[in-house]
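Record minuted for everyone:
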Amino acid sequence: MSAPDDATSRVRRKRMEIFAFLFLTAVVMPVLAVGTVGSYGLGVWIYQMFAGPPGPPTSAH
């Protein structure tokens, strides 16, 4: 009697694995990528507010 339950369990587990894979690839990874690039850009922007823009130093004439 456990054979139908076992088959149903396997099908359900496979469906959940596919859902988890799609959720990770379509939602979590893009959010992490945007968050990483955005936080790096924000950090550089804040650093440049204090240190000044990059470039050669100004000459003291």
Remarks:
- The chain has a mean pLDDT of 90.
- The chain has one domain: 1-51.
- Residues 2-51 form the longest helix (50 residues).
- Residues 1-51 form one domain.
